[in-house]
Structure formats: structure tokens, C-alpha cells
Amino acid sequence: IFGFNKMFMYSKSCTLAVAVFTAVLGSLQYGYSLGVINAPQKVIEKNYGRSLGVWSEKADVLSENSTEEEEFSEAGQHPDVIMYWSLSVAIFSIGGMLSSFLVGFVGDLRGRVKGMLMVNVLAVAAGLLMGLCMMWKPHIMVISGRAVMGFYCGLTSGLVPMYIGEIAPKAYRGALGTLHQLAIVIGILISQVIGLDFILGNDDMWPLLLGLSGAPAVLQSFLLPLCPESPRYLYILQGKEQEARKSKNYTQQLSMSSFFCKPYIYSIYIRSSVYRQQLIVALMMHLSQQLSGINGIFYYSTAIFARAGVAQPVYATIGVGVINTIFTMVSVALVDKAGRRTLTLVGLGGMCCCAIAMTVGLKFQSDYSWMSYVSMSAIFLFVSFFEIGPGPIPWFIVAELFSQGPRPAAIALAGCCNWTSNFIIGMTFQYIQTWLDCYVFILFAVLLLGFTVFTYLRVPETKGKTFEEIAAVFHKGRKKSAQSPKAAELQQLKTSTDA
């Protein structure tokens, strides 16, 4: 009997490991798509210039000849190229913003597993559009591919944390939830390394570099049929109690008391006082992630390192990617021990101090040569503190703050908030940097201080708690005669014609 139990537990662990690994392949693809566009920027701009007829190889030769001049010696200086390049970068976030509202619909339509399988068609189509871009107009093909890939990533950035949160055992919910962010930063690092000019980031191979964005979706499509469906989805939306129990045996011991309602439409949650506090916390957690200034580092780290006096800034940027990965692993190890709230507070507070140090370093590096080391150290520490808490935790804490009914809608709203703020920072950072110059990170230091105070006052610890226990924390201050969150949710279901 002991041997049978041991084999059964091993089988459950293996199934859970396969399910989580398969799910985070979508996160890896998201990270790769985030980072892949930056390394080959100059090469892509040249190809855009050739396709648009505004730049030629002759211009490149003339730019190296100090005795001859031409108005646009570099392809990236032409207004048309600048417009199409900016659109290539920004369209990814626009696609994510549009699709993030569909996360709940796709996840509930056929289930979490089949939902991830369906949306992989988008990733493969996007990879083909970019990989075959030289067969037609590369600027049109790349922009189209980036738009489709952004649409895919908006869906997967919600579906992956939702699925992992629903199959993860309570004791490991934080560590497994953090794997979503770990896969993202690994994807960014891979794109940075193979995007070097002597690998794929050159004039001949850059379409393949972009086309590989769809590769993880192919592998995931083969593995998803081996993964169990979310027991919560099977029980609540499908009424398949036996299948839910079978799926549960392969993943975790679920509390069936949390299976009590169906998803609402978004407007009900926005109006409902039952979930208002949780929703505010969820949105603020995602805002703190994107408005921390981290994307300014990710998008423009090479330029920042060059300004700090680094001879080979592209390798320093890869160093940021390595630090990213290492400290996300640290978060995986600590999140179920130290707790979500503690790591978020440490991360936000540390980033605030680093933003101030970065400002001091950039301000005085022309006066003191050693100040460049202050700037670089501050950048590395800034990224480290981000990945300890503010980076990974917002992605999965939303699934912990809400019970099964409102969870898809809450994840969709939080995801839309994340993508929208990501887009705003990506589009405005350069202008803010021009306006504030070396003081640009003081703005983010002020925001980080505000988010730190909010987290200290309003964000509860969710480590080791059931969904009912977490909900009780938010409703602790209410009158004893008031309905419980569970009863209130059921009452709204009974009275709502939309439920």
C-alpha cells in the first residue's frame, strides 16, 4: 500500500509539473515577443527604408564618408521609417489591450486548456507573418505580425496565471504562480542573446529571429492535450463533478466550498461593493508594476548604459536580463515563505531608493567618473528589487484575491490595466526623458513611494489562505449583520439577469 501511495503521489507531481511547464510556454513566448524587437532595431530600420524607397546602400556608404553628406544618412532618421518602426513596437501593446478583455470569455468558452490551445493559432500565424516578411513589404508584414502576436499575448498573460492558480496546491500557489514571470524574463533573455548581430540579429537572419516568436506555441500545442483541465472550471461551469474530482486528484486537494457561483459580466463587478476593495488592490498592484519605471529600463537600457559610459552597452543589457532571471528565481523560492505582501513592500521600497541613486549617478557622472558605477549599480539593483516582488506577484495575486465566480472578469480588468499602462509608458518615456533629462527617475521614485504606502496600508497577506479567508480580510470592518461575501455573491447571482 505504501508503494502504491508513493507511486500515486509521484504521478500527481509529474502531471502537475507537466501542466505548469506547458502553460508557462505561453509566458515564455510573451517574454520573447517583448524583447525580440529591440536588438535588431537598426537592421529592421534599414529594411524598412529599402522597402519604402527612402534609403539605399549608397546612403550607408555616404554616411561613413566624412566629405559627403546626405539628409538622411541613416534609415532610422527618415520620418516614414520612424513612424513605421514606432508602430511596430506600439502595436504589440495595442493588441494586448484589446484582447485582455476577452480572457474570461475564452477561458470559460471551452475551458482553460482548450482556450490556450485555441489561441495558439494566433501565435503561429503571427510567427509566419514576421518570418516570411521579406516575401512582401516587410514593414506591413512585421506590423501585422506584431499586432496578432500582441493579441495572443494579451490572452495568454491572463489565461496562464488563471490556469496555474486553479490547479496549484495552496502550499505552492505562490511559487507556481511566480513561474509565469520567470518564463517571461527567460524569454526576454533568450531574445536578447540570439538577437546579437553575430547570431540572428543581422541583415540576413532577422526575419527568422522575429519568426521564432511563434515557436513555443507549436510545442505547447503538442503538450496541452496531456494536461488536466482546471477542476474549478469543470465543476462550476460544466457541472462535471466526477471529472473535476478526477482532475483534482492529479493536481491538488480543492475546497469544494469555493465552488458556488458563475462568472459575472464586467459591469456587475465594477458596480458591486462586494468586490470593490479587492478590485482596487488588483488594479493598483498592476499599476505599480508598470508605472514603476521598469519598462523605461527594459526598452531603453542600452541607451542608458551608453550614457553611463559603458563601452559595449548591448552586453550590459544582456546582463540586466541575467539579473532579471536570477532574482525571479529568488522570488520563486521566497514567495511562499516570506509572503506576497512582504516581498512587494521590499521590492517597491528598494526600487524607490535605486531610482534616487540612479538620478544622482546620472546627474554627477560628468563631474565624477566613479558616478557611472553608481548609475550602473542602481540599474542592476532596480531590476533585482523589481523581480523579487513587484514583477511576478501582481500576475497571480489577482487569482488569489477573487473566488471562482469573479476571477475571470477580475483578471481581464487587471490585465487590461497592465497592458494600457505598459503602452502609455512605452509611448511617453522618451518624451518624459527629454523633458526631465537626468531627473526622469525622480518621477518614478515619487510613484514608487506612493505605491509602497498603498501596499502597506491596503494589501493583505494572501500566503497560505483560502479564497474565503482572503475575502474575510477585506470585509473585516463591515457590520456583523452584513452579508458574507459568499452570501452576497449568491444574492447578486439570484437577482441579476446578466448572471
Describe the structure.
The protein has 499 residues and is an all-alpha fold. The chain is built from 23 helices and no strands. The chain has helices at 2-36, 41-52, 57-63, 79-100, 103-109, 112-131, 138-167, 173-194, 206-211, 215-223, 231-236, 241-249, 266-271, 276-290, 294-307, 313-338, 340-364, 371-388, 393-401, 407-436, 440-458, 467-474, 485-495. α14 packs parallel to α20 and α17 packs antiparallel against α18. The protein is globular and about 70 Å long. The two termini are 47 Å apart. The model is unreliable at 66-70, 250-265 and 492-499 (pLDDT under 50).
N to C succession of SSEs = HHHHHHHHHHHHHHHHHHHHHHH
Low-confidence stretches: 66-70, 250-265, 492-499
Q: Enumerate how many helices there are, as a single number.
A: 23
- Content-based structural category: mainly alpha
Number of strands: 0
Name the shape in a single word.
globular
| Assembly type | single chain
N-to-C span: 47 Å
What Rg is obtained from the alpha carbons, in whole angstroms? 24 Å
Largest beta-sheet details: none
Beta-strand fraction estimate: under 5%
Task: Kindly state the percentage of residues in helix.
Answer: over 70%
Mean pLDDT: 81
Sum up the structure in keywords.
single chain; mainly alpha; disordered C terminus; 0% strand; 499 residues
